[in-house]
Amino acid sequence: MTDWTKKKYNEHYNNWMPWVEDKYLAWFGENKTSYTAKEQLKGTKITGDKNVDAIQDGLAEGVGGQFSSGGLLGGVGDLTSKEGVNRAERGDTGPIDAKKAEEQQKGWGSTLSGGMLGGGKK
How far does CA 43 lie from the centroid of its chain? Predict the structure, then answer.
């Protein structure tokens, strides 16, 4: 593989995998925040007692469920998943300012209207 191919693969992977993960978790009513909360709380068992572990698993489901899309804190969970976790995974430290974001994301519309179709520059 050439370096260019590796670079393009990594760019597409970083652009699309957060979306794929979000869609997969959404099928189960989850988001990355609720899933992470559940996994972190389930992963640390306090004792080896199965009754205490069952209580801990139930608590993890309850806490994580509050951050899921239908939970009491679903809006917080969705926001932190999209603006926090996804951006952190991509290493995106770009602007949240709408005007700067719009300038950075000029796509086909501005390219075609500004270049090929003669619009745009006035």
Answer: 21
